[in-house]
Design a protein that fits this description.
The protein is about 0% helix and about 60% strand. A hairpin with a 5-residue loop joins strand 3 and strand 4. The two termini are about 25 Å apart.
């Protein structure tokens, strides 16, 4: 939301009928330019939020709030790099936090990776930066979306595109320590728009 000029992430709580229980509360700093949030809920109904932090060369930001929107883990930077885009988040049955994003570690080659970190429930790093997939030089890897299955395996879908269309959808399955179990190209994605 751009109410205060810079993008800020807000928390709002509504009941099943859509009635507001808690009005908008900002959960990120108005000066850090937090954008493109994704969220996951843990077993205590706490909300974990991951987002792009910054504008031109974004980093990965994270915060955790309780069910009333009060901060439990203040806004923090998960990873600082050349460019980190569109993070996705999942929480497993142990309330560990898994974060994946499209990562450009070197602006000269524009190589992109699907990068990953694992945090405990208080935002402490359990598994530091790990590249779990690559797109190659002068190609794009974007739009990761993560789910955690009943065995605490991570399922991550993402797109790749090499210099021109078409894009390809990919799926990656990782164990709970980000070791690859399998990966597959799902197929070509067409722009019907």
């Amino acid at each position: 939301d751009y109410r205060q000029y810079y993008p800020i992430i807000y928390y709002t709580k509504k009941d099943a009928t859509g009635q507001t229980l808690i009005g908008d509360m900002n959960v990120t700093s108005p000066f850090n330019q937090a954008r493109f949030p994704t969220a996951a809920v843990d077993s205590q109904d706490n909300l974990h939020i991951v987002f792009e932090l910054g504008s031109n060369y974004p980093d990965v930001g994270y915060t955790k709030v309780d069910s009333e929107g009060q901060p439990l883990v203040p806004e923090m930077m998960v990873y600082n790099s050349e460019i980190s885009e569109r993070p996705s988040i999942g929480v497993d049955s142990n309330d560990h936090v898994h974060i994946a994003w499209a990562h450009v570690p070197n602006l000269w080659t524009q190589s992109r990776y699907l990068s990953y970190v694992k945090l405990d429930n208080n935002g402490n790093t359990l598994i530091p930066l790990k590249d779990v997939a690559a797109a190659g030089n002068f190609s794009t890897l974007n739009a990761p979306s993560m789910l955690v299955d009943s065995k605490d395996h991570l399922l991550i879908a993402y797109n790749t595109r090499y210099t021109t269309f078409p894009s390809y959808a990919n799926m990656l399955k990782l164990d709970n320590n980000a070791n690859q179990l399998w990966s597959a190209g799902i197929g070509q994605v067409y722009d019907l728009g």
